[in-house]
Design goal:
Order of helices and strands: EEEEEE
Strand order of the largest sheet: 3-4-5-6
Strand content: over 45%
Distance between the termini: 16 Å
Shape: globular
Structural class: mainly beta
Helix content: under 10%
Number of helices: 0
Radius of gyration: 13 Å
Number of strands: 6
Length: 80
C-alpha cells in the first residue's frame, strides 16, 4: 500500500516518475479502467488490512498528472 503512483516506461525499461494519490483514494481492491488518456479508479478499501469498502471514485488525467474526484457510487464496495 502506497501513497503514490510509480510510472514505468515499458519502452525504456525504466521507472520514470512518481506522484501522490489523493488521500481519500482506496489503497487496494480497487477497480481500474482507462480510455487511453484518463485512468478511472473506482471504490476499493483503505490500507493494507481487510477494512470496509469505500464508495469513492477518482480520475487521473495522464496528460496533466492531476487527480479529480468523481461522484461516489451509490453503495460502497470493493473488488475481490
Amino acid at each position: 500500500v502506497h501513497s503514490h503512483v510509480d510510472v514505468y516506461n515499458f519502452s525504456t525499461n525504466t521507472w520514470t516518475e512518481s506522484f501522490a494519490i489523493p488521500k481519500d483514494m482506496a489503497n487496494s481492491h480497487l477497480g481500474v479502467a482507462t480510455d487511453g488518456r484518463y485512468i478511472y479508479i473506482v471504490t476499493g478499501q483503505y490500507g493494507p488490512q481487510c477494512r470496509g469498502p469505500t464508495a469513492t471514485t477518482f480520475v487521473l488525467d495522464t496528460q496533466n498528472r492531476k487527480w479529480e474526484s468523481l461522484p461516489p457510487l451509490p453503495a460502497a464496495r470493493y473488488v475481490s
